[in-house]
Amino acid sequence: MNAQSLPWDDLRIVLAIVRQESLAGAGRELGISHATVFRRLGALEARLGVRLFERQRTGYVPTLAGDDLATTAARVATDIDAVERRLVGQDARLSGTLRVTTTDTLLMGLLSDVFAGFQHEYPHIVLEVEVSNREYNLSHRDADIAIRPTKSPPETLVGRQVGQIAQAVYVHRHHLETSAWVGPDSHLGYPALERWMAHEGVEAECRYRVDSMLGMLAGVRSGMGRGVLPCYLADSEDSLLKVGESLAPLETPLWLLTHPDLRRTARVMAFFSYLSEVLSTRQACLKGEVSASKPISPCDERQSPEHDGDGAES
Question: What is the residue range of the signal peptide feature (predicted)?
Answer without folding.
Answer: none
